[in-house]
Structures are given as structure tokens and as C-alpha cells.
Amino acid sequence: MRTLSISGKTFSDDLAAFCNAAAPSPDIAASVAAILADVRARGDEAIAYYAAKFDGAKLRAREFRVPPGRLAGAAKKLPAAERKAIGAAHENILAYNRKGLPKGWMAKNKHGAEVGEKFDPIRRVGLYIPGGQVPLVSTVLMTATMAKIAGCPQIAAFTPSDPSGKVSPALLAALHIAGVDEVYRIGGVQAIGAMAHGTATIPAVDKIFGPGNAYVCEAKRQVFGAVGVDSLPGPSEVMVIADETARADFVAADILAQAEHGSGREKIYLVATSQKIIDAVSAEIQAQLKFLTRLEKIHAVLASGFLAIEAPALRQIADIANYVAPEHLELIVKDASGKKLLRDITTAGAIFLGNHTPTALGDFTAGPSHVLPTARTSRFSSGLRTVDFMRRTSIVRYGPASVKKGSEVTAVFAAMEKLDAHGRSVSIRV
């Protein structure tokens, strides 16, 4: 763990350097570009090659897709406790995201013309479900549920297999429960390439959704334009803001929960109002490590990706949070401070309030999607929503009377911009 004080002379530079350390290296960008180019050129042959190289899975093109019956079988064999948990999470996610379903509308503008907008589901979407470190069953629900609410007619899911070609039964069961039956046991950059460009056996999609590691995130960045992407959610981040009302054991547990993602590129920030709080949390982290299993990965993240900051004033804390723009932000502070910070912090992916709201609830079951912006992209983007699976189209209808009212403004603009054909296309109707 590294500790900074906001009063330090190099604080701003040190904070910026820590944040920027999460940026992909030129080597990653070059490697991703080479794989994408190969997938575009060789299609299924390249997909099979990289599945064997990176996942150890020897798959033929006809084996890329998981038979739909296997998904249904996995759901039938799912232990009762797991089925109940998936069902409960699914209900909360459905309820939350149905509220965000946009509605079309029509009205009249000042010319008396009809104007409005309509929303249509994206025709074919691709969902990336990470399965490298651990199979992210929850990501199925956090993406597929919204695609179904939006009414997307074609939903294809991609997730890596193990060396024997198997995919986690729980993940397959969740896909079946969410109503997805087109599933490919393909992961990594090659999956993004298949979604973006298509192959002989895998139809291209219109937009790609879902989180991934640094390579997957960079692949999404590189294919944007050929295909849509939801965002670039990379390795997980959390910022915990704690004052004297925060329980050190709770804060430590939440820090360790993020560290166990284990890619080595996670970012953890503890912003505390005193050094005493930082010391107490640090002691709790050491005490709780003995209860955890992924110790090697946790230690690596704590050593290189954990920054503690002492900042006594709320204004300072808000400025730090708005600069970092964390994926997850926990406000474990007294109520009055929490209300002020909730108002002043405007760049977090998701905010969790109080001692009893760990980020893990948002990861699995609270309702909002856990697909959130990382690497400071919360400055300009938001977490995944139902509307992201839809297209908005504006609608305009003029008649004889309204076109006459609009013709004067159009004539002036056409003259200013020296576009006489534009002006004439209106005046000819008057």
C-alpha cells in the first residue's frame, strides 16, 4: 500500500501517475491489433488457433457454439441454492432496469409540425462474459436482462472455455434463465474480433457489451466504428471514502473483495479523513487475509494497486473523487457528510452509501448493472442501461401550413451556409 497526503507538494502528480498506470501499454495495443487482423483475415481458422493458444481448447469451427440443449440441461442440474440466488438477482435487475425503458413521444414545434422520437432495439447484440480468473455468472444477468427488456431479437453470448472445451455449468444455466440460447465458447480478443467482423460460422453483431481484461478492453476500443461498443470497462476499481464513523473491518473487507479479482491491474483507493483511520484499516486487512483463498493474487494487487490518501476536508475529498472518477465509490461517512459528497461527486460509476452497503451487493443483486466505466471514463460515460441496447430515431412531419412557417428560417440558413439547393428544396413546397 502506498500512502499520500493531500498536503504533499507532489500530490497531484503522484495521484495522476497512479491513475494512469492502469492505461494499456503499447505492447497490448500491438498484440490486440495483430490478433484482430488475423481473425478478420482467416476467420474460423484464426478463432480456433487462438482458442488453443490462450485457453488450451482444441475446438473445430462446428464446436464453437454450445448446443442449446446443454444450456437447458445445465439449468435443470443447477443446485437449488444457486437457482434461487440467480432468480432473486434476476428479479431485482429486471425491476430496476424496466424503470429505465425509454418511451417514444410526439409533439408539435412552433411551426405546427409534428416532431418526436422513437426507440427500437438493436437488431443483433453480442455479450462478452469473462471466464478467465473466475466465471462471472452475474455478468450474464447484468447484460442479458437489459437486452431482453429492450427487445433485442438476436442476443449472442461469448465466453472462454477451459482446456477441455467446457464452460461453467452455472454460467450456462444463467444464460438459459436469462433467455439466451446462442452461446459461443470463445473468449479473449478473438471473441471481440468474431463479434465485430463475423466468420463463416459466427454472424457479426451490431454492438458489443460486457467487461473484460486489458486485452478485451483494448480490442473493443480498436473495433469501435466497425461495430458499436457499450463502453470500455476494464480491470475493477473501488474508492472507499471513510471518516471516523466507518467500521475499519467493513472497509478492509471491501478493499479485499476488489483485490481478489486478481488480474493484477485493479485499482483500490482509500480516502480517509485521518491517518488513524488508514492505520486501522491497514491492520484489519492483515487480520482478514488469513480467511481468504486467493492470497497470491490479492497480495499482488495490494502491493501495486492500492493507494491510501489522507484528506481531512470534504471539498478535498470530492475533488479527489471527481478526478479519479472511480468505477465503484463507497461513502462510509456520517449522514450529513454523505449527503454533501453525494451532491458534489459527479463522476462515479456507482455510489454505495453507508456502513452496510458493500460493493459486492451491486456486483451481484442490488439491481443496477455492474458493467461500469473504469480508468477514469466515468468523467464522460455511465454504467450500462437498458437504453444502451436501443437506437433512438428522431421523427419530423411538416404539412402545407407548417412548411410555410419554417421556410423563412430555412432560407436564411441556406444563404448563410451557401447551400442554395437546401433552400430551394423548402421554397419549392411553399
Explain the overall architecture.
The protein has 17 helices and 14 strands. The chain has 430 residues and is of the alpha/beta class. Helix 6 links the parallel strand 4 and strand 5. Helix 4 crosses helix 7. 42% of the residues are buried.
* CATH homologous superfamily label of the largest domain: Nitrogenase molybdenum iron protein domain
- Radius of gyration based on Cα positions: 25 Å
**pLDDT average, as an integer?**
94
| CATH fold annotation of the largest domain | Rossmann fold
Judging by the overall fold, what is the CATH architecture of the largest domain? Answer: 3-Layer(aba) Sandwich
What percentage of residues falls in helices of 4 or more residues?
A: 40-55%
The secondary-structure class comes to alpha/beta
Query: How do the strands line up in the largest sheet?
Result: 1-11-10-9-12-13
pLDDT < 50 stretches: none
N-to-C CA distance: 72 Å
Number of strands: 14
Our count of helices gives 17
What sort of overall outline do the alpha carbons produce when their principal axes are compared? globular
Beta-strand fraction estimate: 15-25%
Q: What is the level 1 CATH name of the largest domain? A: Alpha Beta
Q: How many domain regions?
A: 3
Summarize the biggest pleated sheet: 6 strands, parallel
